[in-house]
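Might you be able to check the backbone structure tokens below? Thank you kindly.
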Amino acid sequence: MGVPLGIPPAPDDAVLARLAPEECIFYTTWAGMCPADAKSKNQAEQMLAEPEVRRFIDHLEKLGRRAVTQGNEDQQALALTQSTYDTLSLCLRHQTTLYVSDLKINNHKVSPRGGMIISLGADTAAASKLFHENVRSFFLNLNVESLETVTIDGARWYRVRPRADAPVILVGIKGAYLIAAVGEGSLEAIVARMDKPVPSWLANARALGNFDRQTGLSYINLQRLRETLISSSGDTRMKARLELLGLTQSPWLVSASGLVGEDVVTRSVLPIEGSPRGLLRWVATSPLKPDDLALIPVSSTLALAARVDVQKTIDELLAATEKAPPEIKAELLDPIKELGQTMGIDPKHDLFGPLGNTWSFYNSPADGGLVLTGLTGVVSIGDRTQFSKSYAAILRVVRRAVGGAADPFGRGGQQFIRRFRFEGNEVHYVPNSEIGFAPAWCATDRELVVAMSPQNVKAYLTRQADRKSLAALPEIASLFASGDDLLAVGYLDAPKLFEAVYPMLMLAAPTFLGTNGLDEVRRDLSMVPSLPSVCRHLRPGIATLRRTKLGLEMSSRGSMPGFGLVGPVMFLAWDSEWLNLVFGEAENNGPPLPVMRPAAPGAGPGF
């Protein structure tokens, strides 16, 4: 879970864990939010305590409220919209649990049982007033079939019966908890569990996280989910397919997140019962070693190295397919036969067989990569003679796909494959003005290199033999000291990446925000935090995939959840609308508007 769900986390409400059902299909919870402490050891919390960042978040919240209410002249509808916004804010800022305890699917009709519980804490009185004033208008506005008030244990509840055979919902407030129960009997089950111990499955899941300050946890009962899908599909062969693919070996999945020291850490665990088979066969490969990172330069801002033996996984599936019923065997083998006829090779052995099992991807500014423009992938070649046949077949498919032939003058059409000789190797690339990249590839005697441009291929072919690799970084070198097998490692140099993207972000922001209706933000960019206020709290992010005694464990750590700001930054930086700013459209050059003063302290319901 990421901002704003549970960062920085408020103290845990132990009652919510007890309200989890004894068995469930899906469960998720996130911590409530508390004010950020500038003296905290955690960098994410320090960043949120920065005055510039606080001002930016407060401004966005005001604008978000204004965006959903502007243009609404109906006072009743306006009040409903504002209360809906407050309710959404309530869910995001307070500790919340959401679960599905049972699920039935019959003729495309989905009948879930479950609930959502929000711990209101100190905001109970204000939230209760807001809830009872607006709950009737809210549900009637959704055009439900019926809405009635009922009294249960002396408290007022609302029974909502949606349309289209959806399950009944009971909504109300009991003590300091806002409860929405879905399905008959769900509310009674929630109330009955308030004084019971935490279910064993949830206690075990929380122990897997074991964070100083937990921010969120999710659990999926894969076994029950499979059983539900198999029983509802009416397809007698679905179970056999799942077993063949090895997708019945994992009974559950847990993902937890929390604050640990300076970092935000996410840990996901997928157990595997028995020896991995089917699609999971690849995890039985040998682990990564420091030398396997030799192809990734130490200057990389984004990198991934993984040990994946694709050919062994294919061989395992093919061997299992031989024992499968004829109809399932045909379902899996017919697409492979069609692919072989298209490519002119035997894809079962010739496509991945000549390749090695170590795959590397990176983006290095030293090689000319900005954000993703320098993304380069490398995989070793084991059998160069056999790979030559596969490589020729792949080239034929690519030529047909781009509509041209390998002609240095591009006589094959608007899109074509170009080629040139460099350092004794033949490099191919496809100019493509529509996406702004020119995908390129080259097969040397030892590696297959694929990049977003021919320049990055040339940079790889001319790199110095003594160039330091990613394994030279202390935080990467320490990963190999663990006793568990390391199957994949990802690296994100968040400070360098943010420094590179921030100027483009400032160029893109006015047009992007204006195009999406946030003109006031566009005209007052002073509220956007300065680079130092954010960058001084960013730390390199590291993600790992390990094979443990239990199964697979994926973890990530960094200044922000999920490698931090890389997703939105990349999206904004590459949005083509920023070009409009260069050409100076009239709507982008309006006079600045005054900034509204922040509301007085204590205004509003307080959540």
